[in-house]
From TrEMBL:
Residue ranges, annotated region (Disordered): 322-341
Domain of life where this protein originates: Eukaryota
Assigned EC number: 5.2.1.8
Alphabetical list of SMART domains matching this protein: TPR (SM00028)
Record protein name field: peptidylprolyl isomerase
Alphabetized PANTHER family for the sequence: PEPTIDYLPROLYL ISOMERASE
Length: 341
């Protein structure tokens, strides 16, 4: 339907109240069983609902359309009015409704992740109702906020108005020196800096060297974070990027070995640790990780021995049964394999 459109709907019982009908409710009459319905319908308006995170865990319902098409990017400074509520309507925070709007910078963890992502998808002047599941809100722990405590595992609701924003300058709008300075600043702030210097073909020799060192530092820092977050695959990829720039980087070899151990790529972990010890034989962290690796190898060898021991025991039992029966045809002994071994 289009806005303002009026229609008459003829609805068959299976799409209405079916075989049971419906009793009278207040001023509305009863609907008998197996009744066809006639419904007059007018589409007055609608609200746009968008799935911000593509997993239906942060939903944004637009209550008032914003201006133009521009939206904030990472690093934008935004000014908003917001009210945060629990499912029962309890207000746990209210900001920007006094003299000054509430101001924060996108992608700097100054607000919860779901709110950060939702505001990044808004236009100037837009008013939206944002529904945020616990994974993108306060998680599995209770959190004391300005006006109330948010219980653990709470879905929260924000009404947000984006008053204004100042966009961060995009990396392609910066000259080469500005890119290096921006990357250095982001590195110091603990944020993603590599995007500013990822493409350095226009850099001079000195700028390329500065860019290389920043890429190494940023990717190593990011890899350390990914290890803490148990994202071992991404940590391995980041360390590999560093080693493509500096094949003898001990930190990259050490952290990639840590990732490999958790991913149970023990042979690759051993190669990285041995190479790191060739470069820096006295590195205590690498030596300690070698002990961890050896313990993992012993652990998995023990599991393998138990696994194959079980298999061979069942095979021997089968042979014994076969011999006892004088070679007569028997149904085979069922064998089960523990896939977790």
């Amino acid at each position: 339907m289009k806005k303002g459109e009026k229609v008459l709907l003829n609805v068959k019982p299976q799409y209405g109240f079916g075989e049971v009908g419906r009793p009278a409710v207040g001023d509305e009459g009863a609907v008998p069983p197996n009744a066809s319905l006639e419904i007059t319908l007018e589409l007055v308006s609608w609200k746009t609902v968008s799935d911000v995170t593509k997993d239906k865990k942060v939903l944004k319902k637009t209550l008032k359309e914003g201006e133009g098409y521009e939206r904030p990017n990472d690093g934008s400074v935004v000014q908003v009015k917001l009210v945060g509520k629990l499912h029962d309507g309890t207000i746990f925070t209210k900001k920007g409704h006094d003299d000054e709007p509430f101001e924060f910078r996108i992608d700097e963890e100054q607000v919860i992740d779901g709110l950060d992502r939702a505001v990044k998808n808004m236009k100037k002047g837009e008013v939206a109702l944002v529904t945020i599941q616990p994974e993108y809100a306060f998680g599995s722990s209770e959190s004391a906020q300005d006006l109330a405590v948010v219980p653990a595992n709470s879905t929260v609701y924000y009404e947000v108005e984006l008053l204004s924003f100042v966009k961060e300058k995009e990396s392609w709008d910066l000259n080469t020196q500005e890119k290096i300075e921006a990357a250095r600043k982001k590195k110091e702030e603990g944020q993603c800096a590599v995007k500013f210097i990822e493409y350095d073909s226009a850099f001079g020799d000195e700028e390329k060297q500065q860019s290389k060192m920043l890429k190494i530092t940023c990717n190593l820092n990011d890899a350390a974070c990914k290890l803490k977050l148990k994202d071992y695959k991404q940590a391995e990829k980041l360390c590999t990027k560093v080693l493509e720039l500096d094949s003898r980087n001990v930190k990259a070899l050490y952290r990639r070995a840590q990732a490999y151990i958790q991913l149970v790529d023990l042979d690759l972990a051993e190669l990285d640790i041995k190479k790191a010890l060739e470069i820096d034989p006295d590195n205590r962290d690498v030596k300690q990780e070698y002990k961890v690796l050896k313990e993992k190898v012993r652990e998995y060898n023990k599991k393998d021995a138990q696994f194959y021991g079980t298999i061979f025991a069942k095979m021997n039992k089968f042979e014994q049964v076969k011999s006892a029966s004088g070679g007569a045809k028997q149904d085979p002994v069922p064998m089960t394999v523990d896939s977790k071994a």
